[in-house]
Design goal:
The protein is 74% helix and 0% strand. It is mainly α and 512 residues long. It has three domains: 207 residues, Up-down Bundle (Growth Hormone, Chain: A), CATH 1.20.1250; 57 residues; 242 residues, Growth Hormone, Chain: A (Up-down Bundle), CATH 1.20.1250. Helix 1 packs across helix 9 and helix 14 runs antiparallel to helix 22. The protein is globular, with a radius of gyration of 24 Å. It starts with 14 loop residues before the first helix and ends in a 17-residue tail after the last helix.
């Protein structure tokens, strides 16, 4: 079957029509990335409403991220087989349906299933929105198209907690999903009407079914192990041991198969380029650290600092203010400057701010929390924008599409794993700190006796001491994790220097 093909040079969009098409694509990428974080500040509300623990509630975040990660590498094949515009429009419509089902869910199982559907549909939206933006814009305006796409990718994770918090406090948690429905359906409608003229001829490319199966197997096993480990006492549980073995064996089998398959679902051969490999190491560490901060901050603010969902979201959002302001300048600067310098500066700066945050106190004011977050925004565009260009300029031009798809896959997977690891580590450190402090605090009993002598009842005394110990345990755990994340960011900043200086600028006009 062949398609009627009209290339961008034949019937170009201009003026208001080009603007509408660009906004449709940007909005599609925005809501796909937004839904990675919109549930961050809503986990407590969702868990309480569905009668599950907060740690179980993080499945709402990780199920979406893993499902999204699995379909990202398939985007190139889907676009070649069915057409980029058709896949984009279908994914957009399915994303809307998945969002509606999320809102209707009355149990954690149903919600996670709906989030998986939403994630599977959201995966192709990120790379295809970039592909189609570059397809509809003239060559000389490719930088503007890339800048618009990068801007939505940066802003969306910051806006998610604000919007999620506001909707949870003013309406109810299902509305964090319902708001996607009209946007997704409108984007699908406009995209088909405006972009079908840009559809390319179709190719009957084979699908790597074995590779896809192995990918789902090891990613799924690893994610379930990370999520369930803390509740099952890790490797003392047979279930966790089985999952660990499955993940390791599945990953090794996946590597062997993909490196020998003619049409791999994930083209791992691009890792032979040192610049690309080191860029992805930096991406995994830096984005994982950044995403961990985005997950940890609202959980801490809501559960132990007395913030509502709205205020937790508004506080977290400060990290996006300066990022938005300097992103256009960074996009232009990265075209003229050695990208390694910008990445080192950006990731190193994020590490410095995270180190600052590792000295938090339980009586911190709103601005003592918000100012470091505001300053964090200076590092984000310096890290994300030039790193993309550096990675893609390190591979052969014909490999650019595969390399870009793999970058999106790795970035999404890093966010999913970071969510599980940080929530698990936070709970574990809190318990350990609580046990240590409980043994040390008022060992002589003098403080308790003084409170009893002041007229307090024994229950009140015990409650006061428990509240103090819990608050300090959580603050210590939060500081300890920020310290670890800071160390990871500093290490990530240094790894970029293992990449050689690129000899060319990447041409991303054909990226899927």
């Amino acid at each position: 079957m062949s398609a009627t093909t009209l290339h961008s040079g034949d019937v170009p969009l201009k003026g208001i029509m080009l603007f509408l098409a660009a906004m449709t694509l940007a909005m599609a990428n925005f809501i796909a990335v937004l839904d990675m974080t919109i549930a961050n500040v809503s986990v407590s509300n969702i868990a309480g409403s569905l009668g599950v623990t907060t740690s179980q509630g993080t499945w709402v975040i990780t199920s979406y991220a893993v499902a999204e990660a699995i379909t990202v590498p398939l985007t190139g094949w889907l676009a070649a087989r069915f057409g980029a515009v058709r896949v984009f429009v279908t994914s957009m419509a399915l994303f809307g349906i998945g969002s509606m089902l999320c809102g209707f869910a009355n149990s954690l199982g149903l919600l996670v299933a709906a989030r998986i559907l939403q994630g599977l549909a959201g995966g192709p939206l990120m790379p295809l929105s970039q592909t189609l933006l570059l397809r509809i814009f003239p060559k000389e305006k490719a930088a503007a198209a890339t800048g618009l796409w990068a801007m939505t990718t940066l802003i969306a994770p910051i806006m998610g907690p604000i919007l999620g918090g506001y909707l949870c406090d003013t309406v109810s948690w299902p509305w964090i999903f319902y708001i996607n429905v009209p946007i997704a359906l409108a984007c699908a409608w406009f995209a088909w009407g405006l972009l079908k003229r840009y559809e390319h001829a179709l190719e009957r490319a084979p699908i790597d079914i074995v590779g896809l199966g192995l990918l789902i197997l090891w990613v799924g096993a690893l994610q379930i192990m990370l999520d369930e480990g803390k509740d099952q006492d890790w490797f003392s549980s047979t279930e966790i041991c089985v999952l660990a073995v499955t993940a390791v064996v599945g990953f090794i089998a996946f590597l062997i198969w993909e490196l020998t398959e003619k049409h791999p679902v994930v083209d791992l051969r691009v890792f032979r380029h040192r610049g690309y490999a080191m860029s992805l190491v930096t991406l995994v560490l830096a984005f994982g650290g950044f995403f961990s901060i985005n997950v940890l901050t609202p959980l801490w603010l809501q559960n132990f600092m007395g913030y509502t969902s709205t205020w937790a979201g508004m506080t977290t959002a400060w990290s996006g203010v300066l990022a938005v302001l300097i992103a256009p300048g960074v996009a232009m600067l990265s075209a003229k400057t050695d990208g390694r310098k910008l990445v080192f500066l950006g990731v190193g700066w994020m590490g410095i701010i995270t180190l600052w945050r590792s000295f938090g106190l339980t009586d911190m004011t709103y601005w003592q929390i918000s100012i470091p977050l505001l300053l964090m925004g200076l590092g984000m565009p310096l890290f994300f924008v030039p790193l993309t260009g550096l990675a893609l300029s390190s591979v052969d031009e014909e490999e650019t599409a595969s390399a870009a798809g793999l970058m999106n896959f790795v970035r999404t997977l890093a966010g999913a794993f970071a969510t599980s690891l940080v929530s698990t580590s936070w709970e574990d450190r809190t318990k350990l700190n609580h046990a240590d402090l409980a043994n040390q605090l008022d060992a002589s009993g003098e403080a308790a006796q003084a409170m009893l002598n002041s007229g307090m009842s024994m229950d009140t005394v015990r409650g006061s001491i428990e509240q103090l110990v819990t608050g300090q345990s959580v603050m210590l755990a939060t500081n300890q994790l920020f310290l670890v994340i800071a160390a990871i960011l500093f290490f990530a900043a240094c790894t970029i220097w293992l990449a050689p200086k690129p000899s060319r600028m990447a041409d991303v006009s054909g990226v899927h």
